[in-house]
Design brief:
Blueprint (H helix, E strand, L loop, with lengths): L8 H52 L2 E7 L2 E7 L12 E8 H5 L2 E4 L3 E4 L9 E7 L2 E7 L5 E2 L1
Antiparallel strand pairs: 1-2, 1-5, 2-3, 4-6, 6-7, 7-8
């Protein structure tokens, strides 16, 4: 009998089917990991935005406001330091970031904005709830400016 080199079609197809099954078992875990990563990145973004608000408020002697408008989050300060244009009374520090488009996360919570005084202390408290499919996380901002993860 002659010795064959290589694999038969049946052996190759069996390996392809096994690889496909292993991949199908891994996909739900990957989707869960992507959801968790999106929520954690959005949470870090909100916390960094509040930290920036405190820095801006103290350095510019203005009241900084972190605004939560739907899934958009942005930072502005008042009173306006530059001459008002067309009735605009605030300085936009960071333009609106849509957390849904960037991270796939929806934002909810009781407050629509959080103010920071020029002393760096918060004037409001808020709970920001970040959700992506089944993964939920919250950021609590206390009245004294403490961010609790």
């Amino acid at each position: 009998m002659k010795h064959r080199h290589g694999f038969t079609l049946v052996e190759t197809m069996l390996v392809v089917v096994i690889m496909g099954l292993v991949t199908l078992m891994a996909i739900p875990k990957l989707n869960s990991a992507f959801d968790r990563t999106g929520v954690l990145n959005a949470k870090a973004r909100v916390m960094a935005l509040y930290s920036t608000a405190r820095s801006i408020a103290m350095s510019s002697n203005q009241t900084a406001i972190v605004r939560l408008n739907g899934n958009q989050v942005y930072l502005y300060a008042r009173p306006r330091r530059r001459a008002p244009t067309a009735g605009n009374t605030v300085d936009t520090i960071i333009r609106p970031v849509d957390l849904y488009n960037v991270y796939g996360v929806t934002v909810s919570g009781g407050a629509d904005s959080v103010r920071v005084s020029s002393t760096g202390l918060g004037l409001d408290s808020a709970t920001v709830v970040l959700t992506k499919s089944t993964f939920i996380d919250t950021v609590f901002i206390s009245r004294y400016g403490r961010v609790i993860k």
